[in-house]
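Hi V.,

You were right to ask for the full record rather than a summary. Here it is.
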Amino acid sequence: MRKLVLGLCLLCGPAYATGLEIDIAGEADGTVVIDLFEEVAPLHVERIVTLAAEGAYTDVVFHRVIDGFMAQTGDVEYGRMGQDMRYAGRGGSQYPDLPAEFSDITFDRGVIGMARAQNPNSANAQFFIMFAPGPFLDGQYTVVGQVVSGIEVVDAIKRGRGQNGAVIGVPDRMSALRVRDDDPVAAQ
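Predicted structure:
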């Protein structure tokens, strides 16, 4: 098993970060608790934990939100509140893209997946939260976690328009993220 310590992977013990708390502001207003799947996608979880610990996700918007499907966020390059939202969703982070870590976990309601371009090995910083099951994504995108509390906050995220789900006007945003080193499932 690997141990994740703010972006450093050490070979010993259990994973350092087992969850995230995300404060969401806008039409949605509240906290979402996520159980991270370190054993399923260690590189992707490590990336999210690193960016969260650096504060990179603070004030990053939900730029693509499709009713009945998912809400996408995490563009730490172009997706921060106050930036030109026409570019939101096109960026990544200062770190290199990650190789796919596909699993047999199905994309059910509340599952967190890593967004990517057409290349399966292009996930970087962006992720999405499922509003409803999307089994057509199974084995095509890396699963990194599951919402364990606050799904009603996810349900309230401002929806986008059109086939691409682009959010018009002021989008909802992640106002703060906290890395948890305890098991959010056991804490329930």
